[in-house]
Amino acid sequence: MIVLFFAGLILLAHLYLWQRMVRSTTAPGRLRKALTWGVVGLAVLVVATFALTRMDFGHWLAWPGYVWLALMFYLIVFLVVLEVPRAVAALVLRGASRKAVTREAAPVPVPAMAGAPAPPEPAPVVAPISRRLFLGRTTAAIAGVGALGTVGYGMTSALGDPVIERVKVVLPKLDPRLGGLRFAVVSDIHLGPLTGMGHTERIVRMINGLEADVVAIVGDLVDGSVAQLGPLAQPLKSLESRYGAYFVTGNHEYFAPSGPMEWIEELDQLGVRSLRNERVEIRHQGAVLDLAGVNDLNGASAGDGPDFDKALGGRDTGRSTVLLAHQPVQVEQAARHGVDLQLSGHTHGGQIAPFNLVVGLQQPVVSGLATVDGVQVYVTRGAGFWGPPVRVGAPPEITLLELRG
């Protein structure tokens, strides 16, 4: 059902693009036919990209398919925004055309004088471009330039260095000796067909440069199997921190063909410990902080969902607790267990504006620090991207989060 709904959306999107970018800009003929088949091919490309990129032979579709998906989206955004001015311009031009017609006077015939030479033949008149084609081509040109510029900017942002966000979080009951404890928080790295070894190496280099006490990887590390992407994860073994690197599953770990366990085992070999509905003690300057992690909500269907009682039950409630949970919405259960701070990802900050408005309907926090049900939640925008290698209004992020009492 979901597949059919998605295919229907893609079809409707391309029908709209055909109407505005082809039919409204061309006259019937060979050019229109060629462009029509081009739009059909692009629609097939999008569907094939989603269907095949997780397979070894389909990786070559990722770049053209996902880049066109971003262009398609922003073409539609610009065209929809231009619908009103386009309609107004059509009314103005139609009114001007009617006035011009009413002002035209029929030519008065002049009788020819005997012996006078015949008047010269009038020069051929080139028919002006029709009002429909003029408006269609102007609208298409504006939308095309806008979409290309936006996607070009977004690709530069997505493929460039993540922004280092420095955040201080005050926890009222934090032991004063834990003040200054620093977490390097990263999420949504999304190792996949569009990323290379350099993507992981850059993230590791930037994290190590922060000299954090704890590294927290808050889910959605990968988009594929260990067999496909294992080499891209190898730089993670070089992560440096005083008290170790920790990982919790995101929804994409459950999309892997063999589930999350092969990645958990792989990360263990790379020196990254997975917190699977469990907690550890971080001892710093003679004081103790509880660091807990729960599985992602998507694991529930596979019998591997979050278990807050297991992760947080029986602990010393006098201690401050930091929880790693991929989705911000998991704070609803965290609040019932007296968590002081939750670190999450998942949202990408919207990744491609205006999707940030849609994400806000599903998650309590889109990005940054907020308080939900008495629990402070920090949501990182993530260091990678999913789908199109494009970020607009939500640059990639690595966070250095410092605890204060």
UniProtKB/TrEMBL annotation:
Pfam families (UniProt xref): Metallophos (PF00149)
A Gene Ontology molecular function term of the record: metal ion binding
Entry's Gene Ontology BP terms: lipid A biosynthetic process
CDD domains cross-referenced by the UniProt entry: MPP_YkuE_C (cd07385)
Transmembrane segments annotated in the record for this chain: 34-53, 60-82
Required cofactor names: a divalent metal cation
One GO cellular component, as annotated: membrane
Superkingdom of this protein's organism: Bacteria
Keyword annotations: Hydrolase, Membrane, Metal-binding, Transmembrane, Transmembrane helix
InterPro entries: Calcineurin-like_PHP, Metallo-depent_PP-like, Metallophosphoesterase_sf
The keyword Acyltransferase is annotated on this UniProt entry: no
Keyword Membrane attributed: yes
Family per similarity comment: Belongs to the metallophosphoesterase superfamily.
PANTHER family to which the protein is assigned, alphabetical: PHOSPHODIESTERASE YAEI, TRANSMEMBRANE PROTEIN WITH METALLOPHOSPHOESTERASE DOMAIN-RELATED
Protein name according to UniProt: Putative MPP superfamily phosphohydrolase
Organism: Nonomuraea jabiensis
